[in-house]
Amino acid sequence: MIYQVLRVNRDRNGNSRFVGHFLDWILTTEGAGLSVSELYDLALQRASKVGGRRYRGKNFAGGIVLQVTSEKEYEQAIALATAMTLAR
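-> structure tokens emitted (88 positions)
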């Protein structure tokens, strides 16, 4: 389930970027018994495998940013990272 994906300002090289909530990167079965900070760390770990980074902008706390050209690519990156996790 994708909560919200927003287009943010381009990076200094002119590449488009999208940011989404960290819970997009967490499977529903993984959240039990973990604190919010543990879930955020898990999401960052998973996102880093497909080029995701912590979003440090003030307008979207708890976000993970990817250098992609569309929301669809962002969602595909989430699906890929999730599939990589399930394949382990």
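The two ends are 22 Å apart (CA to CA).
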